[in-house]
């Protein structure tokens, strides 16, 4: 119990992944959805870095990939926020019940 | 020292779990942004424990500070004063989601439990007796980034440029109003 | 003469080629000139006539020769179908008649159809008929005979339905074709039986498949292989085919409907050439017929002769009367075959063709003068067109057997039936009725008061054709010598003179002296069309049932499928509610299931 193995990190990242996903589905406000997406991405980052830390790899590929994930998801959130702003200008409301144009 | 390491790990993980649950379940958005900030900073601390200094710094600064400032600005711009009521309607959405999450959790946990006894290599590799004197691999990381992963790095730069232009276009887009 | 013998196929394909020229000419507007169309057609028939006369001379030379020339068309295992030409004395005679009558009818049609539209189409169909009939006459085996038999039926359908814009004409053409189809099916069944026997049971295959030159061989083999009843049954299928084509008793209805054709077509097809195809078939398979079959042919021929003559005496429509008369005379030809004398049948056929064609052409002239073909509308034509009356009289005298060609043929027929009193009586009865109806028509149409609106027709081609046909009715009679003038001959003569007088008196008193019941029976054509109509109405029930099945079962099945699909798709489309979080939950659920499956497989692999 007092020895932190790889599995602890993996379990932690799994729990955070699940929590983030529940947040995506439950949230009514879309900005909260974007925040929960970021939580999921962070959990994934933790997963990759845990693997590179605990195994004797030649290249530090996991950490580099975590960098990439960070960059791309930050950019994705930024674009998402711009789009939300446009929707706000049209609709004056940002709840997920209002945005159902693609119904069918 | 090992126990100190473990205790700090457990405390930080508890904080992370608590604040991420709090992100979802608070009523006002500004508070959820705050809790998100806490989550990301603790994530960064965890990265320090894993011998990934550069990653931790990037996590704290970009995810933690920059992104949360961005969220805060967006929240202030969109002016949503409704409080979220969390009466969870048991729509098929939520039931399916819960089921799915439970299935994922259980399957991965069972898998991990079964394989734990076979793998004796999953012991600590890093020298965890020193919390703050962990080895610094920034030099190695950056040299690898620019040699081994050169193409992806350049493409990422190109991608960021495109996104920058795209955001500018989106912001000044005058669409048809209803 | 070798040139003619080597190029017999030219007779068959020249009309087909002219037919194609006229059709393609319509596309490039080349032969809009009507004279050119008729000229080309006549040239092809004239060529055929020259060929057939030359070949006829060859055939009739002291040593009779048979020209046969065929190529293998289809060759699969034991099945070996040949196509080609076969020319013996029968074919030569039929060919000469066909070409001659065809040529005269084409000249007549040029004048008759001059003012009608679709002139070129008419000549295309005439050429096609020429081609088909020539192929039928020249066929060396049963398969080719069947192919051209059907093609002649097609040509007849096209020509009958020529004025297709009128509703009843097109319906009649369909009815004629369907009845002929029935006969064709019987013939085909007979051919298939023959083919089956020939392939399975005959160990030494004859070289050609079902050839007419191998029929004796067939006859001996088949009679030894089968029961006589089975043999007669199979051959009666051929007989049914021949009877349908030649409009004998149970099937004579189609000839009446075929009278809706233009009159030259009736003259060509339905009196002189196509209806002789039945007789041609019987002559070709004559070596195969047993005694019982000959008795069947004899009896049906006599029944038809008497019944159709009986119906014809009360008809007021000229073309209908002539149609029934054709059936009746063909019945007499079948009688001649039944009495086992083919030369008599062929001579009777030759003379009857010319006579009937002449009478139909006169009917064409009459219809053009008076614009109707009912006898009650016409009277006094003798004072308008004297020559027409003469021609009709000549035809009538020949048909009744008093003078000219008909006399010769009837004498021959009576001579071969000498020993059989009942047959003799029936033949004399038929000739009495034939004389009666033809002269009654003469007195009705040509005598009486002249009507003011009639004008004489001055068409050169029509007159030329009529005059030539008259020559051919008069002169062949003198080619054959009558054996002797005996009691039979005088008896027949007396019968006919009585008939002429009774016709004259019936015209004077304006009624017919037979019991009214018989008259009614005769006028309604023995109620046979009514019988067919009521059978047709019986089928309405079947149509009704089939209609219901089609509407509710088959279409209902399709409708139910549509409804189920719509229902299911309505349910499924509710899954897509535009909310992205819903879609995310779907994907999470699927990922969960996939992970569980992978876990399960992993543990299964681990345990084993």
In short:
Chain B is an all-alpha fold and 178 residues long. Chain B has helices at residues 2-25, 29-49, 53-78, 92-116, 138-147, 150-171.
Outline type of chain B: extended
Helix content of chain B: over 70%
The tally of strands of chain B reads 0
The CATH topology of chain B comes to: Four Helix Bundle (Hemerythrin (Met), subunit A)
How far apart are the first and last residues' alpha carbons of chain A, in Å?
52 Å
Please indicate the count of domains of chain A: 1
**What is the CATH homology-level superfamily of chain B?**
NADH-ubiquinone/plastoquinone oxidoreductase chain 6, subunit NuoJ
Structurally, the number of domains of chain B stands at: 1
The greatest interface between two protein chains, and residues involved on each side, is: A-B, 70 and 82 residues
One letter per element, helices H and strands E, the order of chain B comes to HHHHHH
Mean pLDDT of chain B: 83
Structural class category of chain B? mainly alpha
Count the beta strands of chain A: 0
CATH class type of chain B: Mainly Alpha
Notes on the structure:
- The complex is a heterotrimer of chains A (104), B (178) and C (608).
- Chain A is an all-alpha fold.
- Chain A is built from three helices and no strands.
- In chain A, helix 1 (6-26) packs antiparallel against helix 2 and helix 2 (30-54) runs antiparallel to helix 3 (61-91).
- Chain B has 178 residues and is mostly helical.
- Chain B has helices at 2-25, 29-49, 53-78, 92-116, 138-147, 150-171.
- Chain C folds into three domains: 1-244 and 251-262, no CATH class; 290-523, no CATH class; 534-607, no CATH class.
- Chain C has a two-stranded antiparallel sheet with strand order 1-2.
- In chain C, a hairpin with a 2-residue loop joins strand 1 (67-76) and strand 2 (79-87).
- In chain C, helix 16 packs antiparallel against helix 18.
- The model of chain C has no long low-confidence stretch (mean pLDDT 84).
- At the A-B interface, helix 1, helix 2 and helix 3 of A face helix 1, helix 2, helix 3, helix 4 and helix 5 of B.
């Amino acid at each position: 119990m007092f020895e932190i193995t790889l599995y602890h990190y993996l379990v932690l990242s799994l729990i955070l992944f699940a929590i983030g996903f529940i947040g995506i589905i439950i949230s009514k406000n879309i900005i909260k959805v974007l925040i929960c997406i970021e939580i999921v991405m962070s959990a994934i980052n933790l997963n990759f870095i845990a693997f590179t830390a605990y195994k004797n790899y030649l290249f530090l590929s996991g950490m580099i990939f975590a960098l990439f994930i960070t960059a791309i998801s930050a950019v994705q959130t930024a674009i998402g926020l711009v789009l939300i702003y446009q929707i706000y200008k049209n609709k004056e409301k940002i709840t997920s019940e209002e945005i159902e144009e693609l119904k069918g | 020292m090992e126990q100190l390491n473990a205790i700090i790990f457990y405390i930080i993980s508890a904080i992370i779990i608590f604040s991420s649950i709090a992100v979802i379940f608070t009523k006002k958005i500004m508070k959820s942004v705050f809790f998100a900030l806490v989550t990301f900073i603790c994530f960064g601390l965890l990265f320090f424990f894993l011998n990934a200094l550069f990653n931790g710094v990037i996590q704290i600064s970009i995810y933690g500070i920059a992104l949360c400032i961005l969220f805060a600005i967006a929240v202030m711009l969109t002016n949503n004063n409704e409080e979220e009521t969390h009466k969870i309607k048991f729509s098929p959405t939520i039931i399916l989601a819960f089921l799915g999450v439970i299935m994922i959790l259980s399957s991965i946990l069972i898998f991990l439990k079964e394989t734990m006894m076979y793998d004796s290599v999953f012991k600590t590799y890093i020298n965890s007796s020193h919390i703050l004197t962990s080895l610094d691999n920034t030099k190695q990381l950056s040299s690898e980034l620019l040699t081994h992963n050169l193409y992806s790095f350049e493409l990422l730069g190109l991608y960021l440029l495109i996104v920058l232009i795209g955001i500018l276009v989106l912001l000044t887009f005058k669409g048809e109003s209803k | 003469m070798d040139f003619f013998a080597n190029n017999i196929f030219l007779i068959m394909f020249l009309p087909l080629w002219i037919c194609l020229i006229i059709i393609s000419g319509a596309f490039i507007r080349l032969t809009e000139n009507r004279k050119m169309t008729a000229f080309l057609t006549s040239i092809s028939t004239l060529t055929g006539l020259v060929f057939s006369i030359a070949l006829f001379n060859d055939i009739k030379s002291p040593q009779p020769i048979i020209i046969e020339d065929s190529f293998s068309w289809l060759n699969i295992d034991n099945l070996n179908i040949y196509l080609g030409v076969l020319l013996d004395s029968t074919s030569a005679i039929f060919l000469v008649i066909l070409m001659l009558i065809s040529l005269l009818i084409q000249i007549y049609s040029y004048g008759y159809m001059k003012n009608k539209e679709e002139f070129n189409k008419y000549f295309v169909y005439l050429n096609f008929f020429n081609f088909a009939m020539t192929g039928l006459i020249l066929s060396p085996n049963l398969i080719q005979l069947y192919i051209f038999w059907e093609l002649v039926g097609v040509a007849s359908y096209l020509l009958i339905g020529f004025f297709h814009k009128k509703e009843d004409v097109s319906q009649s053409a369909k009815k004629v074709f369907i009845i002929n189809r029935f006969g064709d099916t019987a013939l085909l069944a007979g051919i298939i039986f023959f083919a089956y026997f020939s392939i399975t049971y005959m160990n030494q295959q004859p070289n050609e498949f079902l050839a007419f030159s191998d029929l004796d061989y067939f006859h001996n083999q088949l009679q030894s292989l089968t029961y006589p009843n089975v043999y007669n049954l199979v051959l009666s299928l051929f007989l049914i085919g021949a009877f349908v084509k030649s409009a004998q008793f149970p099937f004579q209805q189609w000839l009446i409907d075929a009278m809706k054709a233009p009159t030259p077509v009736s003259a060509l097809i339905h009196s002189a050439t196509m209806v002789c195809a039945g007789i041609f078939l019987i002559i070709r398979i004559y070596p195969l017929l047993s005694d019982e079959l000959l008795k069947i042919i004899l009896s049906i021929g006599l029944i038809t002769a008497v019944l159709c003559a009986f119906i014809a005496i009360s008809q007021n429509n000229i073309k209908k009367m002539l149609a029934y008369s054709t059936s009746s005379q063909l019945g007499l030809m079948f009688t001649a075959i039944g009495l086992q004398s083919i030369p008599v049948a062929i001579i009777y056929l030759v003379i009857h063709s010319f006579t009937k064609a002449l009478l139909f052409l006169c009917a064409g002239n009459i219809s053009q003068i008076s614009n109707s073909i009912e006898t009650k509308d016409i009277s006094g034509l003798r004072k308008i067109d004297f020559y027409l009356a003469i021609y009709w009289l000549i035809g009538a005298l020949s048909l009744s057997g008093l003078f000219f060609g008909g006399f010769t043929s009837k004498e021959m027929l009576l001579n071969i039936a000498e020993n059989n009193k009942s047959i003799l009586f029936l033949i004399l009865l038929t000739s009495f009725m034939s004389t009666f109806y033809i002269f009654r028509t003469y007195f009705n149409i040509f005598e009486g008061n002249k009507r003011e609106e009639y004008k004489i027709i001055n068409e050169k081609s029509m007159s030329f054709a009529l005059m030539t046909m008259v020559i051919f009715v008069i002169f062949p009679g003198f080619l054959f010598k009558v054996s002797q003038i005996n009691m039979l001959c005088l008896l027949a003569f007396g019968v006919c003179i009585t008939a002429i007088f009774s016709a004259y008196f019936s015209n004077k008193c304006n009624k017919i002296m037979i019991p009214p019941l018989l008259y009614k029976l005769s006028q309604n054509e023995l109620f046979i069309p009514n019988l067919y109509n009521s059978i047709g109405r019986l089928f309405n029930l079947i149509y009704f049932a089939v209609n219901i099945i089609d509407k509710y079962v088959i279409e209902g099945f399709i409708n139910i499928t549509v409804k189920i699909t719509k229902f299911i798709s309505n349910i499924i489309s509710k899954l897509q509610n535009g909310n992205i979080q819903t879609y995310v939950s779907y994907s999470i659920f699927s990922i969960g299931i996939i992970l569980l499956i992978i876990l399960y497989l992993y543990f299964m692999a681990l345990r084993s």
